[in-house]
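[Meeting: bench + compute handoff]

Bench side (C.D.) handed over the final construct sequence. Compute side (W.E.) agreed to return the predicted structure before the next meeting so the bench team could plan truncations. Sequence as handed over:
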Amino acid sequence: MFTHFREDIACVFERDPAARTTWEVLTCYPGFHALTLHRFSHWLWGHRLRWLARWSSHFGRWLTGIEIHPGATVGRRVFIDHGMGVVIGETAEIGDGCTLYHGVTLGGTSWHKGKRHPTLMSGVVIGAGAKVLGPITIGAEAKVGSNAVVVRDVPAGATAVGIPARIVHPGQEQVRQEKAAEMGFSAYAVTGKEDDPLSMAIHGLLDHAVETDRRIEVLLRYIERCGVSLEDDVATADKFDPNYLSRIVDQ
């Protein structure tokens, strides 16, 4: 037990630059308090002292704002940062070295008994406000973006963002930039920090449409230089406004 105690303190210093002293962690970190109380509650649950385990868990929820069912399995070196509003269901399993931020829910989608909550493999990071629902598995070292709603398995090392969550493939942005350069247009619509795959796909289509319009305008100018008269509806067609559509996508 004391080994877990020391590891919990050490992982706070590893993952929170705001932590200054051990005394501060012991007295001012609700995530540390919640995990310490959960280990006691989980021990009671395992010894079939179910009511006492639930009461202990409820006390921890009142004290910290973090609700961990005593039946949940929590590994070593788990860090809950800030923690307010975190809910972890009865059959949830959290592997070693995971990190959860405030507002995270590891919830169920069924009223049937049995496994109905997520399994987090080692090293998983769940962003603030994310909801991971159902008996799914989040692979080792995977990341879930803030406010994402995850209802399907996430492969190891992947990043899931959005509602419903979609997988962001590693290196996708670099490949897209290289393709944009080959096509001869600037990928202005997607910033380096943007990681929503749906938005990136739409912006990619917008960029391609801009390039298509540019080529059409070049062709029209060459046709006019050759003395060919263009019809008014062709020459005065409405121009595509990618900035307007980009603003709609970003809203």
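W.E. noted at the follow-up: The CA atoms of residues 65 and 182 lie 52 Å apart. C.D. will use this when planning the next construct.
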